[in-house]
Amino acid sequence: MVGKMITTIIAIATSLSLLFISPSTKSYYHSLYISPSLSDNESISHHLYTLTRRPHLAGTEANSEAATYVLSTLSNINHVKTHLAEYDVLLTYPDSRSLTLTRPSPHPPITFTLRQEVYEGDPYADVADQVEPTFHAYAKSGTVKGPVGYVNYGRVEDYTTLKEMGINVSGCIVLARYGEIYRGDIVENAYEAGAIGVLIYTDRKDYGGGGGDTKWFPDDKWMPPSGVQVGSVFNGAGDPTTPGWPSTIEEGGCERLSEDEVEKGGDVPLIPSLPISGADGEEIMRSIGGLVANDAWQGDKDAPVYRVGPGPGIIDLSYKAKQVISTIQNVIGIIEGAEEPDRFVILGNHRDAWTYGAVDPNSGTAALLEVAERLGKLQKQGWKPRRTIVFCNWDAEEYGLIGSTEWVEENREMLASKVVAYLNVDIAVSGPGFQASATPQLDQLIIEATKQVQDPDNSSQTVYESMVQTTNNPKIGRLGGGGSDYAAFVQHIGVPSTDMSFGNGYPVYHSMYDDFVWMSNFGDPMFCRHAAAASIWGLVALKLADEEILPFNYDSYVHELQVSAEDLETELSDKNISLIPLFKSIEKMRKAAKQINDEVKEMKINKGWAFKWKNQSWKVRAMNDRLMMAERALTDREGLSGRPWYKHLIYAPSKHNDYGSKCFPGIDDAVENAKSLNTEDSWHSVQHEIWRVSRIVTQASLVLRGELT
After folding, report:
1. How far apart are the C-alpha atoms of 366 and 42, rounded to whole Å?
2. Architecture of the domain defined by 37-90+325-546
């Protein structure tokens, strides 16, 4: 009889661990997350349509109205306790711009209009004049004139190629095409090469469908010839005038750097730049002579021959910025946990857009509101989360992750001690195919969620099964790049984090054609992908909020560290550098991960034996703290050398590409410097960085073990 009772208890516990919510909400769990109804699609569509009726750049009235909509939807409709977290930050807007090309006789000069064109039947034509003129946020004001040279994508390796060709762009205005690296790095690399200005254009080969008979928006998904990808060229995170501390709104203001101090900080560009259309870029390309660029640098089959110059075309570029201290508004919603209210699971998405933002970011905002609505329905069934769930709708992300960074800097100590995980969705949908990146201990959690959600493009299989079809071994990417709001959480304070979406890039990125029409025709016509994104996001959040023992698995982390260390060993095989400390620390973490995995298994088994489990909740809390805080141990208070805001020594953006991800970024920076200088001191710095990483990996293993040495 006792044995039968124990078996029953174990079965019930196992059932609950699979559902992660109370039995009374079982049917709602299935309908809301496994197979949501078409009404969910309609709700998401309505949110997206409402949010994208007008352009809503950070600091504008329209964006404030969008904040009000998000706040009221969370609080009034979904009954989430909600407030605004406001900051006064430095934003820039275009005051004046001009661009003129002078060509050899008999060709007359061309003054470009720098304008994106509305199309026939454009439903947004009546508000198109509210779109800011095309510009780069935080671009340097100035007027420059010089010969134009072509630098491909403007990467470090592209300048190396030019040097090998005998081409010097010092004193030139360079023409680069978008793609491969972050635009701020394009400008910085040009400055380092001696250029006096930068033009970045949208090449038809990359965004226009490849030329020929290809149609463009609104007839197809491709960027029209007049389309321009705008964006920020700031290479930091947060308000440039308050690096490392929050731009709080209070009487008397807060401490701020001067304009000169901001420039000396090295994160704002020191030469002017402008984004231009594919049509304008092609026109300028025709004015460039000199050597023919190699095949990899050429455009599509209908493009002119790309030459590197410099000249004979001469560019006059003028840009003047308005610098404004503007109030931005983060919307924060809280569902308080019933048993562990001081542990937070945070879901984040930004709201501000360069124009209408149907893909970036409001597909994510619509999904966020959908998750909140589904959780509201669960609450009506009597469900309460074990841990507190926090919804964060960020402002001014497009300028440089400003809203999220200021909030994290203001709440740094609270967040560092209480956040279980941060779940980011910037773009929820840009097309088919699920994509995810995460810190490694969350890999398996994401995979399990995708196994429970129907593929929006194939109803006969799950999202995971579709991933397997695409690649036999689906992998979760890494969050080393600084391209979205997870940066402050994982790279600054060491919080386990994820970023998820359907689709992988889209042609009308950051242009005025990223609107509801594009989304409803090409991105997600039935809004099924939005519903699936909300399902996966919500499932991961529920598991983190409701599982008694946090579903973290550090085996993935150990594997990642081992592979990266082996790659580094190969790279440094001909150098007098020892990686023994690093491999030893990884082995310590391997043993610690096995130990805590064994403890978790034992605890789950013992949970069924009521007499062994009684009054043992403190053990669960202690284990969860070890699982949660191990990520914090991978940060260093001094941060990366020359980049102190980035505290994480395992994941941070590449030094020359903010979108890029680097494992062991400090070591990577030191190796790059040592290869350039090749001095004894520079290689000693590489060894020092290896020791630094070894120490923090050892610290993480100690945290996982939960024991003092």
Report:
1. 11
2. 3-Layer(aba) Sandwich (3.40)
